[in-house]
Amino acid sequence: MKLLTEFKTFAMKGNVIDLAAGIIIGTAFGTIVASLVGDILMPIFGILTGGINFSNLSYTFGQANIAYGKFIQAIFVFTIVAFALFIVVKALNAIKREKESSVPQLTKEEELLTEIRDILKKN
User: Fold this and answer.
1) Which domain holds residue 11?
2) CATH classification of the domain holding 11
3) How many domains does the chain have?
4) To the nearest whole number, what is the mean pLDDT of the chain?
5) What is the distance between the alpha carbons of residues 51 and 60, in angstroms, rounded to a whole number?
6) Phi and psi at residue 16, in whole multiples of 5°?
7) Inter-residue contact 54 to 46 (CB < 8 Å)
8) How distant, in Å, are the alpha carbons of 16, 23, 45, 72, 74 from that of 40?
């Protein structure tokens, strides 16, 4: 029973719920990026490379069909998702640094007075 209580406490923490929401949004974002790459960028890239359709590129080796064109497309999708994630994290870090720099730092005297005040409130 204690294990279930601990799991409930863990599962109901804000971080876990935020993580779940992030995964769902990330999956939807991945679908959008896959469409962007597959439906827009790869055809343009194919035109620039002489009309090559990367999604159809494959090599048949006996019974096995090696679809290396789909692999190339997956690399493009990964690169775009990774770059977009990099931009988002960079922006969040900049906001965080700006917020931290705007918070005034206490002097040693102010820290000591704050500690004294907290001790007096306890008593």
Assistant:
1) 2-122
2) 1.10.1200.120
3) 1
4) 84
5) 21
6) -70, -40
7) yes
8) 35, 25, 9, 15, 14
